[in-house]
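Ticket #4471: structure output looks truncated?

Reporter: J.K.
Steps to reproduce: submitted the chain below (396 residues) through the standard prediction queue, then opened the result file.
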Amino acid sequence: MKEPLDRYCTENFGSLVKIYHSPERLGLIKAKSVGAKLAGGDVLVFLDAHCEANVGWYEPLGTRIKESRSAILVPGIDNIDDDNLAYHNTGSGAMGGFSWSLHFDWRSLPNREMQRRKSEIYTIRSPTMPGGLLAVNREYFAEIGGYDDGMEIWGGENLELSFRVWMCGGSLEFVPCSRVGHIFRPSHPYNMTGKNSKNDAHGFNSVRLAEVWMDEYKRLYYLYRRDLVGKDVGDLSSRHELRRRLQCKSFQWYLENVFPEKYIPDENVFAYGMLRNSATNFCLDTLQKDEKSYITVGVFHCQNGGSSAQFYSYSKLRELRREERCLTAQGNKVHLGSCGTKGEVWEHQKDASMRHSVSNKCLDVTGVKNGEDVLVNTCDENSIYQKWNFERYFET
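Returned output as attached by the reporter:
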């Protein structure tokens, strides 16, 4: 793309567009940092290469930045089909969230945010952003530390900036009147290997994020990535100093004030950790299935904390939870689906059984082999295959 791109921009845009070619591969994060430092305008706009800006996309962003210098803004993100490039409007009914494995996800707007907004043109105050599209006052971006230059290639930088802007006195807002199309691809078409992170740039970057910004809640990330505990991710002193200099609030403040809906799997629960059947040493396990889908849940030899797929909580609402998803029974199988209905209530009996309240059946591994689906069957207080114990219990 080098010479053809230079020629195209010169012929079509003249001096309006400047292209900088790095002498070596930087990756997305460092490339954005270089661009921010080279830019001279009042507002920085970052857009992925696979984006198409719609008519009138900038004015709502620029207006809001003029109103609030410390707001990082994300346009309404429409979908561009990755097969035929058809443009589809996706509306504006969601905000950003995150999983404790530190991946971005989309969330429905909570009632508190719907009540705050006076109309559909109001911005949406979002706990996190996807990262590929944003606008920010250039000077403010530098003041709050830009991107973490210790991160590599791609991954985690969006959550790090999201947590930081809220904790350090700014805001993160989605702007529904600004529309930009984005191609959502099923996989990355390029190599994700960094100099120090090897083939796990996301894990490397997420450790940097967790160690600087998540305080005691970093424990929840390490429940998913115990292999990264103690990993050397480079010098963090400048990022810790940035947090002290900006007098940023705690991550607990962030959870309580910015994202109070976020489920914390080891707080306000009866029990958490592995759910084990001692007779077989089987633990409840997602078996690495896509948890965004309606899936059946199985069992696998207990990994003693070595697998995040075996981490569950027993909530005060008597739900068996995987973060934002809950277990329910249908027929003789157990499924992982949405939370919030009576079908997710389980009674953990004194005899160690786990009884589904609607079907009145108990969690059972009679005849089940390693890697197969767990069952629910008629409760039998004498069956050793219906006895289950969590890794950790709280006093009740």
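Triage note (M.O.): checked the attachment and the full token line is present. The mean pLDDT is 92.
Status: closed, working as intended.
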